[in-house]
Amino acid sequence: MRAVGYGQRLPPRERELLMSLELINTLSAAISALAVVISLIFVGMQLRASTRAQRALAAWQSENSWAQLNFEIAKDPQVVELIEKIHSLQAGPGSLQGTQLLQAQYLIRCLVQHAQSQYFLFREGSLSAEIWEHQRNWMIKFVRLPAVAAILNVEIDQSILSSSFLAEIKRVPAAKA
Asked: Domain range holding 102?
């Protein structure tokens, strides 16, 4: 192609070639834009699938961790007896002495911290509201037991539990549908 000055026209053959190059350039830009849109849709679909998989794994791990904890408790007759005693105490942990009181404190701390970890999974969006509500409602009933409440107050004084978790378990339980 030869240089053309201002106001001069290109010969027809060169004009067709230039128009073909412009058309190719426009088509390639459109194809590139379409490829970007398709890539973004694909990335969005992958991200959504990954998020669902992570939430499902969190739910499974949550339920499995409670099941494992219950299994470990059930294997130890002393711990089962202690839990039965905690549930039957109406006036607080006064009838628990020495090692049994200390064991009750650690057991209650373990259960409450376990629930707190589930709360953080829920709060950060990894655990479904349905699963958390069941666990929260159980925890609310558990911490209302007089012996548990007395021991929990010691834990609160030691700043072992987060204030947001404590506020969450102090809310009224959700009504059953």
From this structure: 55-170
